[in-house]
Amino acid sequence: MQQAETTSIPLNAPSANESARPISWVHITTELTKARLNALVVLTTAVGFLLACGDAIDWMRLSIAMLGTALAAASAAILNQVIEKRRDGLMLRTRNRPLPAGLVPSSVAFTAGCILGFAGFALLATEINMLTGVLGGANILIYVLLYTPLKPRTTMNTIVGAVCGAIPPLMGWTAVTGRIDPAAWVLAGVLFVWQIPHFLALAWKYREDYARGGHAMLPVFDADGRITSQAALLTTLLLVPLLLSATMFGLTGWWSAAFSFFATLLFAALAVQFARYKDDRTARTLFLASIAWLPLVLLVMVIDRGPVSVGAFLRGRPNDRIFEMNSPPPALESPR
Predict the structure, then answer these.
(1) pTM for the complete prediction?
(2) What is the DSSP-derived secondary structure letter of residue 147?
(3) Going by CATH, does the domain composed of 1-9+24-180 fall within 3.30.70.890?
(4) Which of 31, 136, 272, 284 is the most buried (most CB within 10 A)?
(5) So what's the pLDDT on residue 22?
(6) Does residue 335 have a pLDDT over 80?
(7) Does the pLDDT value for residue 315 go beyond 70?
(8) Where do the domains of the chain lie?
(9) CATH classification of 181-323, choosing from 3.40.50, 1.20.120, 3.60.110, 1.10.3470?
(10) Which long-range contacts link 299-302 to residues 24+ away (Cβ below 8 Å)?
């Protein structure tokens, strides 16, 4: 997920006393794998899993899916930092990361990233199913080979980065069903769209630092913030029909639709404020609101999860699962 920048060291440079303090390997590992961000990535995988399986939860299978996702996400984070070591060193808010700070050799980090990536793919492919493993591997490749090289070249890198954030819930879904259903695309769409205002608000606040690092983020070229704020507002509003379609596709119930509708209106109201003032304060408020909005909406979706079939909704059977309507559920592969 492209909001990886949110886990960086604070903007202010450390003092001489702070620099002299010993840095633990726990801290280095946490920063190198972007553990705080990847906790959110793993959460979205769990949401996809829970929405697909309904009440019959295979906790062991869920745990394996989450572990495989965590390994893949850590791999992408490490390899991204290996490539961006020089640019990270130019930015105030990332120059203290382990690689530009010289705490870890690039060769060691690269090796660790490759090992974690292979382990994540192997775990998902053998213990869950091949489709989930392929999605995990594809996410690493997209993040490292597309998103990372595009960051200094085009503002479209934000769209590519959002694709990476939309894949983990698909992995959770396929871990249960072995396929990607229409409702799964709706869930992925919510994650994809949410990342745009989330990241634009962050990029506006740190636009000077992104420019210092040579990154082609939209706010770097949008001096008055008009395009940035409008894009943030439009994508926030786009979440409304997406979340309502989650109910229409039977992914969630009416309580979830109502909650997400009003929560998104509040989210959009803050985007309006950002569009009106275009300053760091409103950008920061919008960014913090995006962090609160996502887990709350996902939690309500899981609590009020509904049938995984548009047919169930149209036939007026809101509590039916797709497997009850059509055919017996496909056999799930048990973890070995």
Answers:
(1) 0.85
(2) I
(3) no
(4) 136
(5) 59
(6) no
(7) no
(8) 1-9+24-180, 181-323
(9) 1.20.120
(10) 300/252, 300/255, 300/256, 300/259, 300/260, 301/47, 301/51, 301/246, 301/251, 301/252, 301/256, 301/260, 302/47, 302/50, 302/51
